[in-house]
Amino acid sequence: MPTRLLVLISLLATALAVNAAPLLEGRSAGQPFVVESVAEDLGVPWGLAFIDDTWLVITDRNGRAWRVNTQSGERQALSGLPDVAAQGQGGLLDVAVSPRFAQQPWLYFTYSKPLGDQAATTLARAQLNGSELSQWQDLLITQSTTSTSRHFGSRIAFDRDGHVFFGVGDRGERPNGQNRQNHAGSIMRLNLDGSVPSDNPFVGNNEALDEIWSYGHRNPQGLTFDALTGRLWEIEHGPRGGDEINLIIKGANYGWPVVSRGQEYWGPVDVGDDSQPGMRNAEKVYIPSIAPSSLVVYHGDAFPAWEGNLLAGALVLRHLNRVILSESGDPTDEERLLESLDERIRALAISPAEGWLYLSTDSGKLLRLRPVD
Fold first, then answer.
1. Local structure of 42: helix, strand or coil
2. Closest C-alpha among 244, 248, 211 to residue 226
3. In the beta sheet, which residues pair with residue 358?
4. 130-158: per-residue pLDDT in tens?
5. One of 151, 183, 217, 319 is an active-site residue; which one?
6. Any residues with CB less than 8 A from the CB of 241 and at least 6 apart, and which?
7. Is 237 part of the annotated catalytic residue set?
8. Which residues, 6 or more positions from 10, have their beta carbon under 8 angstroms from its beta carbon?
9. What is the CATH number for 129?
């Protein structure tokens, strides 16, 4: 049988194995697509990461995780997870596959680690063998404890040079955004083993922690590295209005709470100034807030018009947000998709084989968006 026909049969089987009836049909940039259900009853599925062409790891904020077969819907619970502080916005958060997974099968996690009656956002890793996690290592227990259960962050990204990035929110205390003596309100950069790179911007600076790469962030909810352009992108919650997409630069101050386009929750009063010298402005601001939850750069063959675009989930305004970028990386336009689903979209992942978009919802669903053809 010709190879091309075998590929077509495989793709068709993948599309039909889980759920033959689409939940939604639509168009983006003139291209028709369908949305299908892959799995349900996943708690609050916070993180998604493909470990190969078929199997996807999913974290539940309540402290569970699974391997899910995207063709059949089969799921296997993962063992070896730590205790997590699953309260408020904390719990088991992101999961990401090491760029060297083929040599050593490390999965990276962020979670809120219980520390007495408080919790700290923690970067960890463990090796995956089938459905068992082993050799669990807490790489950085951040200095970020507060009395609140808000703004833990936290997403993970890898660059091309053997570094891992992750973000922590201000933990509900605004001055943390400008305080470099703790990790709250910052994005950290580490080597894959958790050690500190010698070229981090504040190494040797007594006024800042060595792990900090950028600061002045309110609550990073999406972080993605574009390997084709070398750009590190972040999306974060503003207060009432003022969600931001930021291009993350070494050592930069992103202003929170001195600079913000949002307002106080209790009234129409600006939180901060639109800009300040020495503080970097956002590349894009959302007013009103969409409440972003994730961020990926699209590279794939399934949706040619999306190539190089940013995709973000939205919680409050309940849609998939597509941001079109110029060649220089400036946001030029946006498209809002899947609004009729009326779902809080929490996490995004792109399948490595087909370039289809997988997304999770706070109602516990794993969905798939794929082209009609």
1. coil
2. 248
3. 349, 368
4. 999 999 999 999 999 999 999 999 999 99
5. 151
6. 261, 262, 263, 286, 287, 288, 289
7. no
8. none
9. 2.120.10.30
Task: Please check whether residue 333 lies inside any domain of the structure.
Answer: no
- Return the residue matching tokens 């003596």: 181
pTM above 0.90, yes or no: yes
Q: What is the pLDDT of residues 57-77, one digit of tens each?
A: 999 999 999 999 999 999 999
Please report whether residue 304 resides in a domain: no
Measure Cα distances from 249 to 6, 22, 188, 192, 299 in Å. 45, 41, 12, 20, 22
Find out whether 12 and 34 touch, Cβ atoms under 8 Å: no
In a domain, 369, yes or no: no
HEC string for 222-250: EEEEECCCCEEEEEECCCECCEEEEECCC
* Domain boundaries, position 144: 79-288
Query: Is residue 209, in this structure, part of any structural domain at all?
Result: yes
Encoding tokens for residue 247?
Answer: 């291009």
Q: How many domains does the chain have?
A: 1
Q: Name the one residue in this structure whose structure tokens are 């590295």.
A: 225
